[in-house]
């Protein structure tokens, strides 16, 4: 076999992305602010693995007609089926059930991590994405749901999203189930149609009332020609549900509907008493949430400002997270009622929103100072490494050049491409005198573009100077501080 035929093709799997330094830092900046809010509310971190036994995850994914479709699964060597987690809630339910006797209830916890969906990728739709969840397990009162809504609102504002640019929308699955009972969709024989209704209504913000009307009926074909099967309701049932979505009221209802309305009233009263007005937390009959395991209040964090989509159209940004009450999820393992509520933030989607608002990536990251290599003997290399460590120990990002040091010009080109603010140089003459040269790369680039005569050069801050080794850290710090002051002045 030839060497050419053996060469592998480097390719990224569909629906997955590589993340670069800027995005990774932006995520860290954002999640730190979210974590601060969760901690302030008294929540503690916990971490569960990416892989769970398939039966522990359950069959709760939205938009799926086949059991366990949408989940990446494989068999272990003991023939047990295992899956990559598709959310962070089902693994938490397993964790709580498995450690139930050691956990203090109510159990208030948060966690961030990647989840995986084996779904058709599309623009902005990936098979791996990060979520950041908070949950309270063991709290039966809807006051816990009200607190979740308040925490979502506080999180939006901690991220710099101003009031008027977001709203926490709240509904109740008991209300929705009561509406479906009133539409003659109750009973075990209508389980699949009810799931179809939930999936259809959950698309309201994406497809509008006409799109939902099609999904409640026979189905909808998208622009690519793909057909989504509908819930198969008759015209009277469709109009009944559309009227509920538009008005928030129904002409006939039962006990389940009344119970759900009472719970929504409690949440609204608690939010108002705590100072959260309708501009921040609002009752909205169109909120459904696609996951099947919700049993009570459900809520979504929606960003209400306009953005331009890939077609050049102005659209509302929409949902960046949500959640609700899932009283039956832990009970699957325990055989006894275990109430729980929580919400999840879509980290990647929220990060996109914050970039649109100019609220992310504002923390300055200065490229490393570069210590160049002029000589490869043991004494010289030891000094270069010592300079690098002294700068690092002083909190200054630094690196020693690790490429082919024999071509010094390549080191300066590397520093330019790297964006290094300062370069350290020590040849044989400087080493003999315990001296180093420090070169201000930022000022040097500016001077080379602006200087017209020798007098201007002499009056400018020197771009390069020789100093004693013992003064290295102090002089580099002074140079970096001067560069930072110049940047602030130019911004101002």
Automatic annotation (TrEMBL):
Main location: cytoplasm
Keyword Aminoacyl-tRNA synthetase part of the UniProt annotation: yes
Catalytic reaction equation(s): tRNA(His) + L-histidine + ATP = L-histidyl-tRNA(His) + AMP + diphosphate + H(+)
Gene Ontology molecular function: ATP binding; histidine-tRNA ligase activity
EC numbers: 6.1.1.21
GO CC list: cytoplasm
Residues annotated as binding L-histidine: 87-89, 117, 131, 135, 289, 293-294
Alphabetized Pfam families for the sequence: HGTP_anticodon, tRNA-synt_His
Annotated Aminoacyl-transfer RNA synthetases class-II family profile domain residues: 1-368
Annotated signal sequence range: none
Keywords, alphabetical: Aminoacyl-tRNA synthetase, ATP-binding, Cytoplasm, Ligase, Nucleotide-binding, Protein biosynthesis
Subcellular localization(s) per the UniProt record: Cytoplasm
GO biological process, one term: histidyl-tRNA aminoacylation
Superkingdom of origin: Bacteria
Main enzyme class: ligase
Record HAMAP family: His_tRNA_synth (MF_00127)
Family: Belongs to the class-II aminoacyl-tRNA synthetase family.
Quaternary structure (record): Homodimer.
Record protein name field: Histidine--tRNA ligase
Organism (species): Limoniibacter endophyticus
Lineage of origin: Bacteria, Pseudomonadati, Pseudomonadota, Alphaproteobacteria, Hyphomicrobiales
Gene from which the chain derives: hisS
